[in-house]
Each structure stands twice: as structure tokens, then as C-alpha cells.
Design a protein that fits this description.
623 residues, Flavocytochrome C3, Chain A, domain 1, Methane Monooxygenase Hydroxylase, Chain G, domain 1
Length: 623
């Protein structure tokens, strides 16, 4: 008998991997075999028509993304008795925003006396009014139901507790949210693995599969380890791909993001290409946490300037950046960023576009307890000065689907659910938004999957188009080709030139013009020198560039609309915050090959405009 090809085997046997149904986490096996794909088979349908070898996997709930949101959604959906499968572009537990391995603040309302509803007011005010209140209320209530502190300790993260009450120490002000430090995603990912949840890591989703009825029915992907094609069939899909901060990645003397290279906006690009409207794409949560010189760059919390130690921040002449603090009714991360922006606009920044922080007491800062100066001295022989230059960085994006109701289901694409930090990114409430939205998406997607008797049909022709395009990028030999890594850097530089947190109309438009030029002239020349399908990082970058371009254009269109300063969207041509006229949302949609952008009134059914106006101090770039 001659050798049977993989394609013939798949056609003949109709074999597809299937995720294990995990009825509940408490009694699941922790053995290695518990994490293997097993279970049912399905008919091959038209998989062979893709024209290449393809592995097909079936599950009730497909989770795209393995950070806090994705892991939480998977854990919740599995606990509801649905089969679950996670696909993550990076190494699980170490990819995306979560995977930079610094550990989130465990911002949670576990210890509030109500059902989580009281948290909404804090969320809305800290987001300076930019909130989808219907969805955000549901998310806050989901966070309460999730018992995140308990899950953290089940995963091996022991919280510091009060000796008398036994409650975890919230190292922030008293209120409906406590924030003990240190939720480590690597531990959480290991916990989910031990629970038996199948995880396909280093697998890049190319597109969500939406059938002719407009219903999400899975995804098409590439295994980045060997370049083979994969199709995932699912009753419901959760998109938890995180932000697109790598658009401000390592593009010069200073790194402009501490986010990870996985954060290239693949999910946002898919949403836009499927006609989903996104809100508030102009918002780019930032902080100043990166030390200079380059050899001593650090990131996060006590090592930089945040609201925890904002009184230790100075301009280049050692004048305090927060001298006008008494005029602000309570400092927030956003108002602090605007104070720093004013310093830079007035020419008071340091050589590399940053500010100075006094680190003389940094060893005693409670934020993450990092002994930075001591470690630099011991490891590198570098003695840090008292005042260290810290440069800005973009760590998140606040964009999300415009209409998700109170379940997280995307209105334009039924059976597709979304989970990400969202508006909470403005204040650094990454865990709150990520965990709450993940729990809500897992809960809602599981409930819908349970109501569906059969997996919706898969549009195989659309899967073929996505795969053909991906392999064509690898195989292309364009004349005067531009390496993918070089082209990605040119996109990053163009973005940061006009769409960093300090903006004006001319700069925004110049960035859009350059991004459009890159898309028209340079993107067709993208070149991958090695044709290997195995761990080919240039191929991956070539595929990610179109996501960065799409996100840059969406951000620019939204930024042009918001003619005020709010969040870390600092318009030097519109330096004032204007609650009377700008408690609105930007809405960006991609349709018929072009972007459409408009201003839409925020729905405020629970916390009215008068309350928000009275609570959000109008601290723009002027005081």
C-alpha cells in the first residue's frame, strides 16, 4: 500500500480534533492527557476543497486569545458544561498585555456588599464619562459573580490579608473596588491547563468565519510552529485578542509600548472587516514607566510615574509636574497624563521626551515591591541617579464594539462575543475590565451554545480566501521587496509621529496620509526572505501589518472627530476638556472599502450627564 497523504487521510476518515467537554473545573483531571484534544468527529464537509492540508477542530465555545479575558471566558464556559478550546497567537501564559509577566492589580469588587452595581459609578467617573453603561453595568455585576480573589488563590496566588478581618489588603483608597497586587497570568494559564481546557498556542487566527446567514461559526488559522492550516468550528466564538498597542512598539531610541508583540490588533481588524462599528478608537491609555538610559529600561508601577507616586515627578528643571494638583478634584491616571503632556508641550520635557522621577524612596513603594535600583546595581553595575528619566509608553487601547447589549454579544455578528479591558484601561483598571468582560462573555457564550443543537455551517470558500492570501504573502517575490520587519517599523513610526498621546489635526492627518501611502505603495511589496513555514517570524509580521494599518486608520479617523482633550487624547489645538458638548462617543466603521466616522450621543440610563459633569473635573491641557 502506498503512502497516504495527510489530505487523503482527512478526507477518508473525516477526522477532526475536538475539544474535550469540561463539565466542571473542580473535578477535572490534572494529568497531561486531560489537556489533549479528544472526543467527537465530524464530517469533512468541504474541507478538502480548501486545496491544501487542513486540520479541522470542533468545539462548543471557541476562545480566541489566551490572556486574562480569554482564560476567564474559557474557565466560565467550561464550568457551564460546554466544550471549550483556546487559540492563542503567543506562548500561553506569556503573550499579549497579560504576558509581559508583571502581574495585574487584582482590581475586584469581591468585597463590596452589593451585587457589583455600585462599582459602575466608579467605573464611569474614572473613564471620564466615556462608558457604555448598559454593558459596563453587566460587566461590573459579572466581576462580582466571578469571585476573582478566590480564583486567584485557587491558581496559586496567595493574597496578603488583614490580620483581623481576613480580607485581602486593597492597596488603594476604600471603596467598591479593592486592588491587592499581583495576579500572575502564568499561574492562571497553568490552572486552566490542569483543569483540562485544550489550548492551541502559537496559532494565529486569520479571520473569524461568518456564514451566509451572518452568524459566527468559528475561525481559520495558521499553526505558527509549522505553517499548517487550521479551521475551528464552533457554536459560539469569544474574541479576546486584546489591544493593538504594538502599533507604538519598538520604533526608535525609546520603546513606546510595554505591551507585547502579540498585540497587533488582529481582532479589531477582523471586527472592522466584518462591518462592526467600534467606539472610542482615539483613546490610547498611557503612562510614564520606562527608565532611560536604554540599558536600564524598566516598566510598570513603582519604577515609573503613576498616580501612586505622582508627587515625585519633575520636569527637566526639577519643577514638580503636578504643581497644579490642588486645582484637580482627585487625580486620575488620565488627568496626570495631561499634566505631563502640558509639561512636554511647554518644552519642559527631558532629552528623550520624558520627565524626571525621584526614585530615592522607590524601594518602599508598595506597587509590585520591585527593588529596581538594587537589581540594576547588582546585575549591571549601574548606579541609578536620584532623578531618573522616564519616557511615555502606550500600554492599552480602549476601542471595543459599539453595541454589545448586556451580554457581550456583538450586535452585527450573532454568536460572536467580545471580551477586553475597554474603557477601564483609561485608569489602569486592566484586570477589572479584562476579568469582568471575560467572565460575562464566557457565561453568555456558554448559555447561547447550550441553546444551539448543531454547529452553524462553515463558509469554506471564505476560509480558502484567508488561507490563500496568507500563503501568497509567504511565497511572494515582489520586485524591490520590503522586508516585513522594516515595513512594520515604518507603520509604527508613522503612527507615533501623529497619533501619540499629544496630537493636533495636522499631525493626525499627516499620519493618515502616510499610512494610506504605505498601504497603497509599500504593502504590495512586503517580502518574506525565508520561505520556511516553521517559526517564521517575518511571515507572521507580514500578516500582522494589515491589522496595524487598519487600526491606525481607525484611530486617526476617530481622533480627528474628538475636538477636545479627554483621557490621554491630548489635542494641542483643542486643549480644553468640554463636558457640556463632548460627553459623546466616537463611532468608526469600515464599509465598502472606506472608513466612516461619526459622533454619537452616549446612552446614560444609570448615571446621568449632570452627575458626570459634576464629578469629572475639566482638567485639559490648561488649568
Amino acid at each position: 500500500m502506498g503512502e497516504v497523504s495527510r489530505r487523503d487521510f482527512l478526507k477518508g476518515a473525516g477526522l477532526v480534533g475536538a475539544s474535550a467537554a469540561v463539565a466542571g473545573l473542580a473535578g477535572c483531571s490534572g494529568s497531561a492527557s486531560a489537556n489533549s484534544d479528544k472526543g467527537a468527529t465530524v464530517a469533512a464537509e468541504s474541507a478538502a476543497d480548501l486545496g491544501r492540508d487542513v486540520a479541522v477542530f470542533e468545539t462548543d465555545v471557541l476562545i480566541i486569545g489566551g490572556g486574562v479575558s480569554g482564560l476567564t471566558a474559557a474557565r466560565k464556559a467550561a464550568s457551564e458544561g460546554q466544550s471549550v478550546l483556546i487559540v492563542d497567537k503567543g506562548p500561553i501564559g506569556h503573550s499579549g498585555t497579560s504576558g509581559i509577566n508583571w502581574g495585574h492589580d487584582l482590581a475586584t469588587n469581591d468585597w463590596s456588599a452589593d451585587d457589583g452595581s455600585e462599582s459602575l459609578a466608579l467605573w464611569v467617573i474614572l473613564a471620564e464619562g466615556m462608558s457604555d453603561q448598559v454593558y459596563d453595568l453587566a460587566m461590573c455585576q459579572a466581576l462580582k459573580r466571578s469571585r476573582a480573589s478566590l480564583v486567584a488563590e485557587q491558581s496559586g496566588m496567595i493574597l496578603q490579608r488583614d490580620d483581623i478581618t481576613g480580607e485581602p489588603l486593597g492597596l488603594n483608597v476604600p471603596g467598591p473596588i479593592t486592588s491587592p497586587h499581583g495576579f500572575f497570568v502564568r499561574y492562571y494559564a497553568q490552572h486552566c491547563k490542569r483543569a483540562g481546557i485544550p489550548i492551541h498556542e502559537r496559532t494565529m487566527v486569520l479571520d473569524i468565519l461568518v456564514n451566509d446567514e451572518g452568524v459566527a461559526s468559528g475561525a481559520v488559522a495558521l499553526d505558527l510552529r509549522n505553517g499548517t492550516a487550521r479551521v475551528y468550528r464552533a457554536k459560539t466564538t469569544v474574541l479576546a485578542t486584546g489591544n493593538y498597542s504594538w502599533i507604538a512598539g519598538w520604533n526608535g531610541i525609546k520603546p513606546c509600548s510595554i505591551s507585547s508583540p502579540e498585540n497587533t490588533g488582529d481582532g479589531h481588524r477582523m471586527l472592522l472587516e466584518h462591518g462592526v462599528a467600534l467606539r472610542d478608537m482615539e483613546q490610547l491609555p498611557c503612562d510614564f514607566v520606562q527608565w532611560t538610559p536604554l540599558a536600564t529600561r524598566q516598566g510598570m508601577g513603582a519604577m515609573g510615574c503613576s498616580i501612586v507616586n505622582y508627587q515625585s515627578v519633575y520636569d527637566k528643571d526639577l519643577n514638580p509636574v503636578t504643581a497644579d494638583l490642588e486645582k484637580v478634584a482627585g487625580v486620575t491616571n488620565s488627568s496626570f497624563m495631561r499634566m505631563v503632556a502640558r509639561t512636554l508641550v511647554n518644552g519642559k520635557g527631558t532629552e528623550n521626551g520624558g520627565v524626571l522621577i525621584d526614585i530615592s524612596d522607590v524601594e518602599h513603594d508598595d506597587r509590585y515591591y520591585r527593588r529596581c535600583a538594587e537589581n540594576l546595581s547588582r546585575a549591571l553595575g549601574y548606579e541609578s541617579p536620584q532623578h531618573v528619566e522616564a519616557c511615555p509608553e502606550q500600554w492599552e487601547t480602549a476601542a471595543r464594539p459599539f453595541d454589545m447589549g448586556n451580554t457581550g454579544e456583538v450586535a452585527e455578528v450573532p454568536s460572536l462575543f467580545y471580551a477586553a479591558v475597554g474603557a477601564g484601561a483609561w485608569y489602569g483598571l486592566g484586570f477589572w475590565g479584562a476579568y469582568g468582560s471575560g467572565y460575562l462573555a464566557g457565561e453568555s457564550s456558554a448559555a447561547k451554545a447550550a441553546s444551539i443543537s448543531e454547529i452553524p455551517s462553515v463558509p469554506w470558500e471564505k476560509a480558502k480566501v484567508a488561507l490563500d492570501e496568507a500563503y501568497a504573502v509567504l511565497e511572494a517575490e515582489p520586485e524591490n521587496g520590503i522586508r516585513a520587519s522594516e515595513l512594520m517599523k515604518s507603520v509604527q513610526i508613522a503612527y507615533y509621529d501623529g497619533l501619540s498621546f499629544i496630537r493636533d489635526e495636522a499631525g493626525i492627518q499627516a499620519t493618515l496620509d502616510e499610512i494610506n501611502r504605505i498601504e497603497a505603495e509599500d504593502l504590495p511589496k512586503v517580502f518574506v526572505p525565508s520561505k520556511s513555514k516553521c517559526f517564521n517570524t517575518e511571515w507572521r509580521k507580514a500578516l500582522e501589518i494589515k491589522s496595524l494599518i487598519k487600526c491606525a486608520k481607525g484611530t486617526g479617523n476617530a481622533a480627528l472627530l474628538r475636538k477636545e482633550t479627554r483621557g490621554a487624547h491630548c489635542r494641542t489645538d483643542y486643549p480644553k476638556m468640554d463636558n457640556a458638548n463632548w460627553l459623546v462617543a466616537t463611532k468608526v466603521r469600515f464599509s465598502e472599502g472606506a472608513f466612516q466616522a461619526e459622533i454619537v450621543d452616549n446612552d446614560m440610563p444609570y448615571i446621568g450627564k449632570d452627575i458626570i459633569t459634576a464629578s469629572v473635573f475639566e482638567s485639559g491641557l490648561e488649568f
